[in-house]
Automatic annotation (TrEMBL), chain A:
<dbReference type="InterPro" id="IPR036736">
    <property type="entry name" value="ACP-like_sf"/>
</dbReference>
<feature type="domain" description="Carrier">
    <location>
        <begin position="2"/>
        <end position="83"/>
    </location>
</feature>
<dbReference type="InterPro" id="IPR006162">
    <property type="entry name" value="Ppantetheine_attach_site"/>
</dbReference>
<dbReference type="InterPro" id="IPR009081">
    <property type="entry name" value="PP-bd_ACP"/>
</dbReference>
<keyword id="KW-0597">Phosphoprotein</keyword>
<dbReference type="Pfam" id="PF00550">
    <property type="entry name" value="PP-binding"/>
</dbReference>
<keyword id="KW-0596">Phosphopantetheine</keyword>
TrEMBL record, chain B:
<dbReference type="GO" id="GO:0004315">
    <property type="term" value="F:3-oxoacyl-[acyl-carrier-protein] synthase activity"/>
</dbReference>
<dbReference type="InterPro" id="IPR014030">
    <property type="entry name" value="Ketoacyl_synth_N"/>
</dbReference>
<dbReference type="InterPro" id="IPR016039">
    <property type="entry name" value="Thiolase-like"/>
</dbReference>
<dbReference type="InterPro" id="IPR000794">
    <property type="entry name" value="Beta-ketoacyl_synthase"/>
</dbReference>
<dbReference type="GO" id="GO:0005829">
    <property type="term" value="C:cytosol"/>
</dbReference>
<protein>
    <submittedName>
        <fullName>3-oxoacyl-(Acyl-carrier-protein) synthase</fullName>
    </submittedName>
</protein>
<dbReference type="Pfam" id="PF00109">
    <property type="entry name" value="ketoacyl-synt"/>
</dbReference>
Automatic annotation (TrEMBL), chain C:
<dbReference type="InterPro" id="IPR016039">
    <property type="entry name" value="Thiolase-like"/>
</dbReference>
<dbReference type="InterPro" id="IPR014030">
    <property type="entry name" value="Ketoacyl_synth_N"/>
</dbReference>
<protein>
    <submittedName>
        <fullName>3-oxoacyl-[acyl-carrier-protein] synthase-1</fullName>
    </submittedName>
</protein>
<comment type="similarity">
    <text>Belongs to the thiolase-like superfamily. Beta-ketoacyl-ACP synthases family.</text>
</comment>
<dbReference type="GO" id="GO:0004315">
    <property type="term" value="F:3-oxoacyl-[acyl-carrier-protein] synthase activity"/>
</dbReference>
<dbReference type="InterPro" id="IPR000794">
    <property type="entry name" value="Beta-ketoacyl_synthase"/>
</dbReference>
<keyword id="KW-0808">Transferase</keyword>
Amino acid sequence: MSELKQELKEKIIEQLNLEDVAIEEIKDTDPLFGEGLGLDSIDALELIVMLDKDYGIKLADPKQGKSIFESIETMAGYIKEHRSR
Amino acid sequence: MPVYINSIGSVSAQKTFDNSLFLEEIVRYNDTVLEIIAPNYKDYIPPAAARRMAKGIKMSTVSAKTAMIEAGMEEDEIDAIIVGTGLGCIGDSEKFVSDILDNDEQFLTPTRFIQSSHNTVAGQIALGMGCKGHNFTYVHSAISFESAVMDAKMQLENEEAKNILVGGVDELVDHHVNTHRLIGHIKQEPVETMSVLTSGTKGAVFSEGAHFFTLSNEKRSSCYSELLAVETFNTLAEDQVAAKTKSFLSENGMGPDAIDVIILGYNGDVEFDGYYDTLATALFKDTAQVYYKHLSGEFDTASGFGFWLGNKLLKQQRIPDAVRLNSVPANSAQNALIYNQYRGENHSLTLLRKC
Amino acid sequence: MGIISAIGNNVAENYASLIAGKRGISRISQIETIHKDEIMVGEITGTNAVLEKQLGFTENEVSRTVLIGCIAADEAISNAGILDINNARTGLISGTTVGGMDKSEQYFYDYFDRPEVRQHITGLHAGDSTKKIATHLGLEESFVTTISTACSSSANAIMLGARMIKSGKLDRAIVGGTDCLSKFTINGFKTLLILSDTYSAPFDEERKGLNLGEAAAYLVLESDALVQKENKKVLGYVTGYGNANDAYHQTASSEHGDGALLAMEKALKTAGMQASDIDYVNAHGTATPNNDLSEGRALIRLFGEKVPEFSSTKAFTGHTLAAAGGVEAVYSVLALQNDTIFPNLNYTTPMKEFALDPITEVTKKPLRNVLSNSFGFGGNCSTLIFSKDKS
């Protein structure tokens, strides 16, 4: 699980061009959107594609993303349970 | 209602992002494509804002910011943002297309698609400034920038706006360059900067850049010039250029002899430079003549560099040696005329007066 | 005026479909895409081959955007009774977002090995489509430009034409826009998750997103002087226009429709009208959750409790992107000419956020002023007002 979390942090930084953010700065329970990392709705769409491409998870409804992408913790939990690759 | 150009901003293949300089030092190339000399973007754009920005947006942001600061213009004073761009953020468009093709329409992400909307530059500048005013983007090859200038002028004259941010931007990307080489729009052989005009070959040296200006109906202390007129023509035969120019000037109550400096868009393409010769060798043969695309390279909004140059030389009352076509002096230059066309199409005439 | 869309190849056919409630939405047939079973589109019936032949272009000479643009522009010119396009200061202002993208995406990698398709290289310039339409029309030494402000492009083209005539810069302006369907836009909107897998349902609580469409539409605007000189019959007047930026988000509209409200207010101001002068609103109404909520709220903010009859005609045509403003301008003029409001198809359930019901049946009503909205990415909001009489 901690490996997956680390991997997610790396991917988020790379995929979303968060050049000025270091991996250590993202805490597992920090909110990704709004105040925490400051991601927005376009980033959410990018993350949905990431789930599909890297973990084989297709979200039927983009609104589901809201709870899944709350933090690295919730994201890792969801992926662990639903991944097909 | 007069229209003043109160400030300028440029990012180009020369070191123009610093308004205190005026082509004292020329960066010489020996190439067929020129990239811009990038400022340190971090000095202008916070990293969080920059993370999704295409190169075209970054260049534009720097250039727009430079112009805003020089005029002492507050963001909330801007009533409209008008941008001209031949291709928009073409880098993202091309990546999105290649992603579609390479991944068989799967795993595509929205950012590149969003950036490839031509109006993304004007939209993002408005978003950054919180400007809810008129917001237009013109995308018509070599008159993209002039269309934006014309629109701004009309609004200021009709008192629909007081201050407008106007710009032109285009970026250079690989696929575009490679395909335009195939059809001979880009020179086959590298050419040295100061020999572009005498290359004797077909095609142009391609480049990129962003040029932004604040236009207002009130003069500020930073004022460069008054914009007297701008007109565009989709077609014009070579032997009609002089006649059109004359009638353009006479509509503005001037004859050719009132022009102190003529700025010509020569790009060293033997097939199309003849259009400029018709003015340089006859109507304006005794006028100080200036060219610039050997320094800026050719792109859809390269005439933005010409506009920048016209403003700069009227304000500073000096013609840098590197842009001179002849040695006619331009003492106390009052009026500058800019003529541009690309591949015999999309002609524009722009008339500036020292302010 | 002239138009070609999924519901007809000319003005008369479009009108017939509108009053018959006949939509042009179907599965996609002319573009090969892996999404073909998940989306519905508004496709123009004629294939490129048919359109090329009709116009006298050679095979694969130009983009579909140019083909449909020429057809609509030709109809507009002939409908306006123009015999010599260069007899007055005539301008062409066209809106497009994709331009020649249909060909660019098809030959992206082929250009290098196949010289016979290289005519499409310059087609990637959005302005190239306008240039080709100008050439087709025989327009010379004139003001010809292209506006690309996403889905409000042709509304802005109409606005610019009206402003230039008002300022005395042109006597006549051919204004509108053209956009064909492409893999580029299908996949682009797909990434934003705003494409519906069924018929789009504007202003419906259960709306799932938009149907993309393709269309071209142009109107001929002429100055009073030219109309008088040539003794022309006037179809309607562009009395109001307003452009504003939402400055809220790169793609989404603000929650309460700030930009939309501003654009509508500006349009009323230029027209010298009160909100109560508007008899019908042709809404942008894309059927995305975000747009319809934001636009609906803006309508309520402007009109208060008396929101006039309104409908979105996008369930007929699909969202035709840059052409939408032109298409809906033609429909607005048709509404005025026939005192008829066209229905908002597929509407059954009111949205929970407000009590707004669009018109769902063909409705006869004396109309003086029609307001038409067009919004786009980059926060672009445009409103036009068309009137039966000069204000």
